[in-house]
């Protein structure tokens, strides 16, 4: 299968074909995702929590994001890759937003960028789109503003907040975004927004009725252990597998079961010659 373009993603929406989307932050995970046939990879600023051990995403820098995007690109050059604009990379001005979005393309060769927010980032989305860059919007639970939201909480559960999200979604499409991610909103709202917009609408914790799903690799693989959001389905328990492997290794080293003969390099000259050599240094 060839690499998807944004046009392919739009065609998939029209055809009712669901798109698959995961996060990845490094070379091996990107390879695994591509080999499995995933449509899109998000190099999310969730890398701050999943791979760098921060409590949230606000400490993540442009340098972190670019370097992780480069690694993912090396691992999945045939997959549509979205770079995530970190907190502070688009908050000052439209010019700053364009500057940093351009960096994602020039330095990491990603296919699109994603940024959080609705009406309040309308001009940023327009400026970046006008620069010829594919923009993904992201509304609902927006982790960069978790402080303002009072934590990592579901959004749009009441009519007033749902209305704001509908207005945000419409503004995002109008500003030129070519896809939208809804996070942690009820499926009724997801379905309405997905039908209302002509761009693909994807869900992370926003239910079924939309154009595809995103999930965080650390969550679905059981690697991220700090907490598990309600919307996560765990497909593996990699943390357990890794910890057990380390434990087995410790036991093998202590009891000299590792390394075995097959794990060592064998001398090519005779043992006598080696013993003579060792004698020289005694
Ligand atoms: O950084 C990320 O992985 C994200 C998801 C939470 C949607 O933005």
Please give a structural write-up:
- With 282 residues, the protein is α/β, with parallel strands linked by helices.
- The chain folds into two domains: 6-236, Phosphoenolpyruvate-binding domains (TIM Barrel, Alpha-Beta Barrel); 241-280, no CATH class.
- Helix content is 44%, strand content 13%.
- It is built from twelve helices and eight strands.
- It has helices at residues 6-15, 27-36, 47-50, 62-75, 94-108, 122-130, 146-149, 159-174, 187-196, 217-220, 238-254, 271-280; strands at 19-23, 40-43, 80-84, 112-116, 135-140, 179-183, 201-204, 212-215.
- The chain has an eight-stranded parallel sheet.
- Helix 5 links the parallel strand 3 (80-84) and strand 4 (112-116).
- Helix 5 packs across helix 6.
- The longest helix is centred in the C-terminal third of the chain and has 17 residues, at 238-254.
- The chain is elongated and about 85 Å long.
- The mean pLDDT is 97.
- Residues 23, 42, 44-46, 84, 138, 143, 181, 183, 204, 214, 216 line the site of 3-methyl-2-oxobutanoic acid.
């Amino acid at each position: 299968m060839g690499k998807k373009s944004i046009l392919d993603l739009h065609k998939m929406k029209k055809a009712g074909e669901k798109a698959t989307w995961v996060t990845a932050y490094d070379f091996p995970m990107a390879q695994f995702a591509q080999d499995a046939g995933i449509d899109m990879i998000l190099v999310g600023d969730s890398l701050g929590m999943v791979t760098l051990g921060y409590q949230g995403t606000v400490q993540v820098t442009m340098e972190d994001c670019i370097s992780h995007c480069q690694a993912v690109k090396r691992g999945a050059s045939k997959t549509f890759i979205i770079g995530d604009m970190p907190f502070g990379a688009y908050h000052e001005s439209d010019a700053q937003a364009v500057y940093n979005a351009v960096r994602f393309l020039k330095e990491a060769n990603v296919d699109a960028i994603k940024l959080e927010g609705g009406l309040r980032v309308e001009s940023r989305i327009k400026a970046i789109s006008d620069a010829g860059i594919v923009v993904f919007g992201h509304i609902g639970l927006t982790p960069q503003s978790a402080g303002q939201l009072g934590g990592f909480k579901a959004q749009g559960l009441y009519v007033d907040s749902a209305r704001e999200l509908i207005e945000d979604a419409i503004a995002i499409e109008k500003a030129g975004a070519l896809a939208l991610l809804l996070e942690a909103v009820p499926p009724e709202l997801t379905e309405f927004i997905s039908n209302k917009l002509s761009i693909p609408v994807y869900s992370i914790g926003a239910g079924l009725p939309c154009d595809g799903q995103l999930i965080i690799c650390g969550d679905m693989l059981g690697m991220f252990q700090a907490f598990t959001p309600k919307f996560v389905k765990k497909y593996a328990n990699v943390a357990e597998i890794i910890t057990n492997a380390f434990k087995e290794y410790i036991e093998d080293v202590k009891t000299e079961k590792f390394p075995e003969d097959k794990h060592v390099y064998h001398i090519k000259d005779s043992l006598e010659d080696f013993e003579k050599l060792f004698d020289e240094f005694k």
